[in-house]
Structure formats: C-alpha cells, structure tokens
Amino acid sequence: MFVITLFKVILLYLTIFTKNGVECQQVQLELSAKQVTENESLTLTCSYTGTQAVLESTWMYSKELTKTSTLMNINETCDAVGFLNDSSLYGWECSTYNVYVLTLKRVARDMHGLYWTCRQDGTESDRQYIHVNVPVEMVEMYSPTGTMISVPEAVTTTFLCKTSFALPTPQIAWFADKGQHGGNDDMPLLDSLFVSTRLSREGFISTTSRLTLNMSAQMCGWKIYCVANNSIGYIHKSKEVSIIINENDEPSIQPPVISNFENGSTYYVKENATISLSCNVTGTFPLPDLTCLKWTCDNHTLQTCVSYCTKTLTVTWTVSVKQSETCACQSSYPEFGDITTYIHIKALSTSTHEHDVQNKVPVLIIAVGTICVTLIATAVGLVYALTKRRAKRNCRQQSMKIHATNKQPKKQADVDAISQSIEEGSSTTTTTTDGINSIDGHLQNEERSYQRLNYMLGSDNAYSEYRK
User: pLDDT tens, 55-83?
Assistant: First the structure.
C-alpha cells in the first residue's frame, strides 16, 4: 500500500515540473566569439529552452550594475527600453521562438573583463565575460634619444625599446640595417637581449626590450631599430639610430672646400666653355648627413650621398657655362644644419673680349712711346758725357805733346804719330746707334796707345795724368 502511494506522489511531481516531456527549462547566453579585437563588433544571443512564448528579455551589464534594460516583442515589433535604447552603440532583434539577439557595434578596450547576463521568464543565464584583444599601436626607442650616436670602438652601448599597452603580450625584435643597397640585408640581432613586461590596471601588457652591443669598426654606418606586434594588427617599427665609430671625442665640423678657389671668389671663363668643379668636405663626427653633399648651379643640382662613415666626400661636376651664374656647394650636418661655399662664374662673350682688346691698344702705344723716349734721352746723355770727356782728353794730349818735345826730341816723330792715331780714333765717335756701341772699343784703343806713349817717353806719370 505504501509503495502504491509513493508511486503516485512521484507521478504527480513529474506531472507538475515537466511539460510535454521537456525537463528543466533554461536560459542560455552565447557570444559570437570568445575573443574580440578592439573596435570590432560582438553578438550576444539569449535563448529560452521552453516552448512557452516569452515576450520580453531583460539584460544586465556589469558596467551598469544598477541598471537593467529590456528587449520587448510586442505585435512582432522589437523595442528596447533602458540603456540599450542607443542605436549608435547597440543593435537588437526579437524572435518568436524565445530568442533575443543583442549586438555590440564597437567593442572598446574598457569592456575587457566585463560580463553580460540575460533573463527570461524569471530564469537568468550564466555570466559571459568579454575578452578584448588590443593590437600594438606603437613601439618607441627611447634610448638613445637621438637618431645618431658616436662612440669609440669596443665601447658597450645599450638600446631600449618599449611598446604601447596591448593584448596579447607584445613581442619585440631587433634588427641592424647595414646600409648596403640593392637588397634587404637587415640582420636580426638576437644576442644580449633582456625583456620585461608591465601590466596595466585594465589587464593590458606593455613590453620593454633591452639590446646591448659591443661596438666594432664594422658597425660604423649601421642603423639599429626594433619592431613589435602581438599577432594582431600591424607590425610597428621604431626610429632608426645610426652608429658612427669615432676616433675623436669632440666633433670636427668643416665647411666644404671648392678646389683652387676661395669662398666667394670669381672665376672668369669664355662663354660656352666647359669647366670641371670639385668640392670636398672632410671631418669627423658629425659627418655630412645622408642628405648628401651637393652642387647647385643655375637652379640645377648634382648631389652625392654616402654613409656616415665616409671621412672625405668629393663631388666633381662638369658644367657648360652659358651665362654668368653662382655655383654653391652645400654640406648638411644633422645637428648643426647646412654649411655652404660658393663661387661666381662670369662668362665672357667673344665680342666682349675683342672690345677689351681694342680698348687696350692705345694704352699699349703710349707705353711703347714712353719707353722709346726714355731710351733716346738716355742715349743723348751718354753722347754728351762722352763729348765732354773727349774735350778734356784733347787738352791733356796737347800738354803731353809739349812735354814730350822738350824732353825727348829724338822721339818726336813717334810721339806725333801716336797722338795723331789717338785723335783720329776719338774723332770717329758719332751720335748714331752704331757709334754708341763702339765707344768702349775706342776707349780701350786709346788706353793702349797711352801706355805705349808712356813706355816710349820713359815717363812714369804720363798714363796717370791721362787717367786724372
């Protein structure tokens, strides 16, 4: 009897708590994705497992714990009441099969870690947490602070890069651009790395990576940089830091030098002439920037680019000069700006050259005439001096004749002959050019004649009297 009563009680229980063979009516909330990337959309579906029609669904959001919002299906029209009634943030849909769909149009990073629930016919679903993935937005090399460093060889140098906060954890990789053109020669740097992370209050992660390099001569001209990503979004790259292996502690800044010309000088050439101009710059750190050493002539530019480690840079330009112009040679220094050296090139046309020659002809004639007058005056002066000297000599000769006659009568004939020879030699002196050239020869002949006379007369002072 007891067994029959117990069976009836169980049957009554099943009849009350089951309807049409369906057990344990439930409300389920499902997400369209377990993880969603920032700024993408996410769909939440709330469904009721019973067959009874449910005309409304109530939603709760952990960010709005004190508020609820309801989706209502009235006359097959779906309306939102409460904070969900904002079409810029949410979209909604009601189904006759007890299914209500809510769309978050743009998931923000501040939704990460928050949860949603829904309730139908008095039954509430489980909590569904939102997992927001945030891509890396930037990576920064904050040490060294500039874009170029100059260090001696064998010195250890540290480079530091850090990322923005992101999720999943950002990864950082280091590379060296060795500056060789014509291919991708960027070399991964894997040694001497140290990585650390920092967690934000919202649950996002920032990564810091430290690279340590022992500088060598072959690294001169390399560019060091880092890249970062976290498997979603774009790969971001830091600035590049150029390495210069420097022998000197202090920078040496030199202006460019134009070969064979001073700064600001003028170079005269014929019109349409072709000339070659060379400009060079030499120095230590900082050397000319990669913006190059360049020539600029008449709005035309020729430039040459080199790596930072070139000690001397020369640019030679062959240019045809059609008109007067200014040519400037400019070097660029990353820390100190540009330094310019220039020359003026003046083109001389053929007509201008002939005109200059014609203007110079009268000047040449005057100069030649002046020289001729000077020579004639000099010749006249010489003739006058010689004539005066000859007159004095004639007086001495007469005196000597008298003396010779008194002392040596037996030799008078010889003395007269010698004196006559002297007078004849002297009288042949003329004012012509040929006469001036023969004056020295006559004087020498006269001197020898007086020496002979002295010997013949036996006088010790005959010749000395003549010299006086």
Answer: 899 999 998 888 899 999 888 889 999 99
Query: What whole-number distance in Å separates Cα of residue 112 and Cα of residue 107?
Result: 9
List the structure tokens of 399: 């005196």
The pair of three-digit structure tokens given for residue 100, joined into one six-digit string: 């209500």
Bridge partners of 194, per DSSP, are: 210
How open is the CA angle 196-197-200, to the nearest 5 degrees? 160
Tens of pLDDT, residue by residue over 135-156, are: 999 999 999 999 988 888 889 9
468: pLDDT strictly greater than 60:
no
**Is 381 or 27 the better-scoring residue by pLDDT?**
27
Q: Is the pLDDT of residue 281 over 90?
A: no
Supply 103's token pair.
């769309």
Identity at 31, one-letter amino acid code: L
Pair 126, 44: CB distance under 8 Å: no
The model's pTM: 0.55
Give the integer Cα–Cα distance in Å for 460 and 454. 7
Dist. CA 415–CA 410, nearest whole Å = 10
- Cβ atoms of 236 and 316 within 8 Å: the answer is no
Is 294 exposed, middle or buried, given 0-12, 13-18 or 19+ CB atoms closer than 10 A? buried
pLDDT-derived band at 19 (thresholds 50, 70, 90) equals: very low
CB atoms within 10 A of CB 263: 13
Three-state SS for 82-103 is CCCCCCCCEEEEECCCCEEEEE
pLDDT of residue 342: 84
197, two tokens? 């992370």
Residues comprising the chain, all counted: 468
Tell which residue, 325, 330, 271, has the closest CA to residue 297.
Answer: 325
Rg, Å, the chain Cα set: 58
